[in-house]
Amino acid sequence: MTTDIKAALRAQAIETPSWAYGNSGTRFKVFAQPGVPRDPFEKLADAAQVHAFTGIAPSVALHIPWDRVDDYAALSAHAAGLGVRIGAINSNVFQDDDYRLGSVTNPDPRIRRKATDHLLACVDIMDATGSDTLKLWFSDGINYPGQDDLRARQDRLAEALSEVYDRLGEGQRFLLEYKLFEPAFYATDVPDWGTAYAHCVRLGEKAQVVVDTGHHAPGTNIEFIVAFLLREGRLGGFDFNSRFYADDDLMVGSADPFQLFRIMFEVVRGGGYGPDSGVAFMLDQCHNVEPKIAGQIRSVMNVQEATAKALLVDTGALAAAQAAGDVLGANAVLMDAYDTDVRPLLAELRAEAGLEPDPMAAYARSGYFEKVCAERVGGTQAGWGA
Amino acid sequence: MTTDIKAALRAQAIETPSWAYGNSGTRFKVFAQPGVPRDPFEKLADAAQVHAFTGIAPSVALHIPWDRVDDYAALSAHAAGLGVRIGAINSNVFQDDDYRLGSVTNPDPRIRRKATDHLLACVDIMDATGSDTLKLWFSDGINYPGQDDLRARQDRLAEALSEVYDRLGEGQRFLLEYKLFEPAFYATDVPDWGTAYAHCVRLGEKAQVVVDTGHHAPGTNIEFIVAFLLREGRLGGFDFNSRFYADDDLMVGSADPFQLFRIMFEVVRGGGYGPDSGVAFMLDQCHNVEPKIAGQIRSVMNVQEATAKALLVDTGALAAAQAAGDVLGANAVLMDAYDTDVRPLLAELRAEAGLEPDPMAAYARSGYFEKVCAERVGGTQAGWGA
Amino acid sequence: MTTDIKAALRAQAIETPSWAYGNSGTRFKVFAQPGVPRDPFEKLADAAQVHAFTGIAPSVALHIPWDRVDDYAALSAHAAGLGVRIGAINSNVFQDDDYRLGSVTNPDPRIRRKATDHLLACVDIMDATGSDTLKLWFSDGINYPGQDDLRARQDRLAEALSEVYDRLGEGQRFLLEYKLFEPAFYATDVPDWGTAYAHCVRLGEKAQVVVDTGHHAPGTNIEFIVAFLLREGRLGGFDFNSRFYADDDLMVGSADPFQLFRIMFEVVRGGGYGPDSGVAFMLDQCHNVEPKIAGQIRSVMNVQEATAKALLVDTGALAAAQAAGDVLGANAVLMDAYDTDVRPLLAELRAEAGLEPDPMAAYARSGYFEKVCAERVGGTQAGWGA
Amino acid sequence: MTTDIKAALRAQAIETPSWAYGNSGTRFKVFAQPGVPRDPFEKLADAAQVHAFTGIAPSVALHIPWDRVDDYAALSAHAAGLGVRIGAINSNVFQDDDYRLGSVTNPDPRIRRKATDHLLACVDIMDATGSDTLKLWFSDGINYPGQDDLRARQDRLAEALSEVYDRLGEGQRFLLEYKLFEPAFYATDVPDWGTAYAHCVRLGEKAQVVVDTGHHAPGTNIEFIVAFLLREGRLGGFDFNSRFYADDDLMVGSADPFQLFRIMFEVVRGGGYGPDSGVAFMLDQCHNVEPKIAGQIRSVMNVQEATAKALLVDTGALAAAQAAGDVLGANAVLMDAYDTDVRPLLAELRAEAGLEPDPMAAYARSGYFEKVCAERVGGTQAGWGA
């Protein structure tokens, strides 16, 4: 069985986000860190380090306009030269003064047009980079009851989504992201999986739901949503991160590793694991106080450990206990996998692949961080604004 | 305009639940109250009082098996004699030892069969009573990760729902209720509106979603769900009550009257108000510490007041402010209606209908409570168990 | 009785925060607005408008270093010339790169010293401006389990608070603010009222707790905390705002006006109302999408309306119903006051004081907003960063 | 180091609650289980099994009146004969119709007297059984705003607590428990640790706070409270259980094992571990759907595993990383302990103590469950009501 698990783990691919390598923060303060990239090329270089030490982070998500470049072919080639490739294109229709009252759901048709045009331009970038996935997150919503018409905003949303959907080419898809709140506080236009799902179903197969693990109300059972969307054939992927309270964007697996394990178990159980599943594993995090590249390496490792544990579950014993109504027995089968220390297995896996067994230590030894700190002096550090 | 509002208010109908007249409580204690009915006939008599004093509570929901009788025609006739009628039939598949691990989603096919048979029997009671609405709430879920297979439970749920759906006759429908948690603590099989919606869409037009206002995670915007379901044509009705934290089942409008107003505003705005809308207004409450009939009267009045305020919104001014992006102006239009004291208007409305202007005081003066306290001695008080 | 209520309302004073007049936003975007002040003097001018139209906003809180000036006497004189005065001094130890891992609780003693020195400098500004209140909010906390020692951070906090406490002069006090989360996500060093209370009790009478209405976990009963702190003699004041989910900083009374009423009722009932109570009513809000001066006027009016309703409660009838165990009767007494439309009373009160009855409309007619939009061109708009 | 850890683990004592062996459920249904005890003597027999197989559950908490007997000396002797002893006495002032509107905070002085007398009677039982700990949990609170006076209820609470405090003998203490909500829904009289703490501080050293891990609002950092109370010398003990949403009373460690580990780490770090610490580890759970004795064994093991991991933390390395501001390094030290599989260590520990290495399997093999199922026929099964 260990052989099968290792094979499955070797096939894993976790996408890191270009913006995780830039500065980030809260509304209170963005703390600048040394060595932070100044442009998309340097972000890719950092992302390539994560892949170099983990072996399972071969692609990098872009955020437009933060990662806008003149020549996407050059950017793709740069990535290839670093041993990585460009992944999902993330649209951004929330950082222009025009979007104060919304983007595609704005009451002003001029602004809606502008926002939709941006989304269409993102598909152009998909064409230019070979990316097959467009990720759509809308900060749209309202802060006060009555501020705008909840239903009219759905009509506008549907119209924009439909136009973008029709623009998608062969082999392209979009993932619609939902989020309970922030930056809108009273009502968000895509607040939950049900809303995203309903829009996707109306549009067709190329529209799927993406689950950001930090975007739910307290008490929400995320793995249930995962299981349900897989059953409906509508789970497009994950934006992984951790939260204790709101959308904290901490390192995935750092707040509730057991939850991450349960999610990965449902992914595997529901056929969402593996290259043919169409389920993308992406990180979406902010390293506000910790170093960024190391933070990404640790995060990738956390997903890998949760995956290994999920693959370890004795599904035969589990099914037998469940069928027998053996509550404690069934729970124990699951917990037995979770309680297992999979770090030796993963160290072995890495060694077999020619990697260092301990990616964190190996990265620290590499001197890369010191190098970029020394080199990246001057210029403007990348962040959410650029 | 006041004329229109009055006409709209005269057409309102709020259904009270038979179980609100019996004893209820928490897992810690059910406090017995004097005068509580001993059987469904006495429950109907109490419900008729609510209608007599408010004029807008003409129907009574039944709960099976709590309200099982030998002769439903006799029960219907009894209701008619009291000036009320039988409303929705509520199924109950959570109070038999067999349902410890679930009813229609139980791993044991024998128990699933038993549960589904109960649901079908409820449709028989609909036929016998002339009720057009079956309300389905499933307590099904699991307490521990791994206890049962989340996805298999959805398959079993879909199978049972399909069988019940096929049994529905002309003019009959079922409403599928969702609930975040309780009595299941780790995962509930119908935890949110998205799950209920997806099952209903697969089944067809006779399957609709019912929104219980106490069944959401903290921070959930309920009026958004109302607006969305109305847009999709899938809002079947409400189970009204109030909550501060969980499914507290307090008097509707007592915890957050502004939220109730916002919900009613979306109902009206989305075409969910009025006899032709198909949206049922039902109460689902527990009067654990307060008197039950008076508690129902107050609750009906709270819904009526919220409705009156919702009807008072100057929709023209609201639309204009929204279109202009006037955040404070649009909010002010809504708040102006909410801040209005509609009690004089409603007193006038009642007087015009030949009712006492103050239902609470009139009921207190009527001596009904003292009468039933004196009469209903001996026997077993109705409660959740009977 | 109306006479007494009017007298009480005339004595009300609500402090507006200088930072509410500058730009603000979320981590995603700060939307710039026209006419925003460029310096503390212009902020005071805007605040004076709020007082001019409401008559009950005579003081303005400062935030240091955002409102740092060379000559505080000149700033005080400027305020006096505008008909307002300087209120609480708010310290800020969260916007320096040094504070990435905390200010007064930072593991590095050099940074702790720097932070404490800033707090002491704020007392100097109190001396210079005649302010009697220092407001202490610490963003200090950690994002990851293990990141720092929870208990050692309390020791460091106690040490800094003690040093600041000893520096307070005659007639000066500090208010310690608590907050559940943000910007720290795993653990905040002053997360709840109990923590603030315990530190204050150890220090002495000049240390009191301030309640920010947006800083609690879901389900928290804020009016309970108010009642409890008043009973203990430790309620120093409020930072008023509204929230639906987290620390949304919306206009007070906009999300849950009933809650605001309940809070004001406990304030009045517990002796926290009136100039001698020592309980400061302060706003702490962000007008991210709505105009700022108008937003403050509306907020002040919302507090005033809630106060008027709280004063309207028939406390004799309430006490009688409570003593009799009359659940519905007691609740009805409270609701009767809440359901009253107090806007006519407040319009009358304003007219008697020589103010326009409708502050929002009067401000709009005044042309002030258009004037500052025209005048305040160039320079750097004030915001959280300056 | 392993030697020290083993020594520390050998000294651990976890108290199981008599009521965990009886039937329990939710307000919807109590599912009866086979083999359930009919009286306190049989409950002690079941509890003795938990101790027999784990070796670390030597005492059993009683709940009065559920465990009322004529002869407490006989009950104590029975316990001793089974190898266990009687632990904390839990008072119950929530299951009498008189307590509908509260017990010690009831507006009716007669009922307050009755409730306080019950608490005093519990101290009598402490004298009779040799128990040194009284656990006080009050379900007191109100369901509706205005229902009763929040502050007056605190006065009444203080009065009752003072009377009970004065009755405590040499070497006796009481633990005051707090709970956010349930069964009261609007306001609970002891809703949070701050309230319990403030009352205890006023009373003296014999009054301490007990932390029930299921009694907090979402997002509350429980280990912070633990650290804070230990720093203040006021942590009396734990009521351990797990929750996903409310007070679910699931097996401790089953919902969030990482949280349990963090709590145990703060206990150890703050001097709360070990027989001299005065911190009692108690379970307070309901096994609604799973078998009860096995559920208790599993729970005791979960606490033990979390303790072992907490003891494994390399505190020297942790302190060094914290002092250096090494966020990822410090977190990694903590996670390294958590990720360790401690089950082999614990199996070894048990073997050294003459126990079976796998308590769950050993208990299953013992045939005890089958034996009591066969023997305990007839009579009334114990539950919350008896």
UniProtKB/TrEMBL annotation, chains A, B, C, D:
Q: Which InterPro entries match?
A: L-rhamnose_isomerase, Rhamnose_iso-rel, Xyl_isomerase-like_sf, Xyl_isomerase-like_TIM-brl
Where is the Xylose isomerase-like TIM barrel domain positioned along the sequence? 52-245
**One of the record's GO molecular function terms:** L-rhamnose isomerase activity
Query: Which keywords are on file for this protein?
Result: Isomerase, Manganese, Metal-binding
Among the GO biological process terms of this entry, one is: L-lyxose metabolic process
Top-level lineage group: Bacteria
- Keyword Manganese listed? The answer is yes
Spell out the PANTHER family in the cross-references: L-RHAMNOSE ISOMERASE (PTHR30268)
The protein depicted here goes by the name Rhamnose isomerase
Give the taxonomic lineage as stored in the record.
Bacteria, Bacillati, Actinomycetota, Actinomycetes, Streptosporangiales
